Model the fold of this input.
Amino acid sequence: MSPAPKYRELADELQDAIKSEATLLGVKLVDGAKLPTEPELAEHFQSSRGTVRQALAGLAAEGLIETRGRAGTFVRRLPLLEYNVDSEHPNRRDRAGSVTDSWSSVVKASGREPSQDFKFRIEPATSGVAARLDVGENSLVVVRESVRYVNDLPWSIQTTFYPYELAKACGLDEPVNIAEGTVRRMANRGYVEDKIVHEIGSRPATAAERAQFDLAPGVSVLIYRRQAYAKAETTRLTIEILPADRNVITHITDNGEEVTK
Done:
């Protein structure tokens, strides 16, 4: 097996230093700290400036640093929010014992404050959504969308599609926020989800996403899809866009080992 490229080794070393808030060339690598210059880093690590530049580009793509023109390169480390794929459970409660939607519970458990902007619409299903929900193309679907914030910082966009008849039966067909979350609401109306198919991918952020999330250049977004069922009936399709510099998705395997996806 061939060794990792020099720039990757350097990037890993710098990443570890940033995450541990170590001191490098007299600079404590905390959020907002200005990194040493490329020539200084090249001399310190006995590498070429090209290698240093490649390593820094990789860290920028992960959202750990950002370049501010002639001002230099700075640490930009956001605290990660860990979202477990098993957290969408109708009986989940927050630390105070209150019934809340699963995402709010996760944020509160991290010691931060959740908020969201809610949007609602009813529209004909596209061919892709119809196939996922097992309804006819152009059948009506209820769409509930939330732009989510953590301590007022844009954190993710979640859009969920529901078959219209199911949404109507469960009281999801009105433009109001549901404090307990739609998964618990459906469970209370007899639609207890017993199967969820999770799909996790990534892609470069669009210009609109870079602006909305204030992303550093090169930061990608995670695309997290959930297709849920209750007794073989499709209940929803959820599509979530999460900036990769502030989110990590985990799940628990059958043997109890936690795995980062």
Q: What stands out?
A: The radius of gyration is 22 Å. The CA atoms of residues 158 and 228 lie 15 Å apart. Confidence is low (pLDDT under 50) at residues 90-100, 256-261. The chain has two domains: 6-75, 81-260.
